[in-house]
Amino acid sequence: MDRFETITAFVSVCDAGSLTGAARKLGLSPSVMSRHIAALEARLGTRLFHRTTRSISLTDAGGRFLARARRILSDLEEAEAAAQDEKAGPRGRLSVTAPVIFGRLHVAPLLAGFVERYPQVTIDLTLSDRFVNLVEEGLDLAVRIGHLPDSQLIARRLGETRRALVASPVYLARAGIPLHPDDLVKFSIISFAPAAPPHHWSFAKDLEVRVEPRLMVNNGDAAISWALGGAGIARVFYYQVRDAIKDGRLVEVLQGFAPEPMPIHAVYPTARLLPGKVRAFLDLIVEAADWRLSE
Fold first, then answer.
1. CA angle, corner 109, sides to 111 and 226, nearest 5?
2. Fold of domain 90-160+262-293
3. DSSP annotation string for 133-186
């Protein structure tokens, strides 16, 4: 008998809890299902089930084999999907998550072009500044800014950005310009971060300063709006305010103390049999995007 057929039958029996239920699901007779299980046990040289007239349950060997059997079938499905992608092009639902402002400015436009290029792909984009667990939430790919913790995820570096302190020209004309990070204690501070107090801001040369924000928010757009309105000095990512700095609506301060750039990565659960839709989107980022956002 075909090995994949017998493994499929074994997993189906485990899922259904009976030979009859598994046979009904696969459109086979119970006697054929029984022969599949018997052939698999003979090939492995061990019993996989305890059987009585009323029930069927896994042996210890069967329980250990079940995890491997599921992985074998999953790999087969992924291999078939990858082969189909190679022939027909990317298709299906591509689910991506990215930080709110970065996603709006840099990821969403790429995805709009992606669906034009691949009409059989649909997009589900989640913009959130919180940490998202890809495996638990069933997402294909995340764009993350900053140094990554050790994990089982695969990361591909695609650019970098850095922190920047900015304020409006009107505020700086009124309050003065800080010349050293220690001077920040004299200024109205806008904090954009999900972290709770105390607030420690890091600068170049391992310099760290504790600040007492007057305005705190977990949304970058709100922090930038306050800075544009003259409410104080905000610490944000440089890519978020690059255009406002260029056109003079915001001024960067303490640039000489700016910390080292932070990487921008695309992370995804596995590099094995990477779905064509994910591989194609990564290729589009490399081809069409410039995420070197430190200057």
1. 130
2. D-Maltodextrin-Binding Protein; domain 2 (3.40.190)
3. -HHHHT-SEEEEESPPPS-SSEEEEEEEE-EEEEE-HHHHHHH---SSGGGGGG
Cα distance between residue 139 and residue 162, in whole Å: 26
Q: What is the CATH number of domain 3-87?
A: 1.10.10.10
Q: pLDDT tens, position by position, for the chain (295 residues)? A: 688 888 898 999 888 888 888 888 888 888 888 899 899 899 889 999 988 877 888 999 988 998 888 888 877 876 776 666 655 578 888 999 999 999 999 999 999 999 999 999 999 999 988 888 887 788 899 999 988 876 778 889 999 999 999 999 999 999 999 999 999 999 999 988 755 556 788 898 889 898 889 999 988 899 999 999 999 999 999 999 999 999 999 999 999 998 899 999 999 887 556 788 898 999 999 998 889 878 7
DSSP 215-237: EEES-HHHHHHHHHTTS-EEEEE
**Please, are residues 163 and 155 in contact by the beta-carbon 8 Å criterion?**
no
Query: Of 190, 242, 185, which Cα lies nearest the Cα of 216?
Result: 190
Domain ranges of the chain: 3-87, 90-160+262-293, 163-257
Other CB atoms within 10 Å distance of the CB of residue 22? 24
Domains 90-160+262-293 and 163-257 agree in fold:
yes
Paired strand residues for 39: none
Architecture of domain 163-257: 3-Layer(aba) Sandwich (3.40)
In the chain, the amino acid numbered 243 is: D
User: What's this model's pTM, rounded to 2 decimal places?
Assistant: 0.67
Q: What values do phi and psi take at 192, rounded to 5?
A: -110, 100
The one-letter code for the residue type at 73 is: L
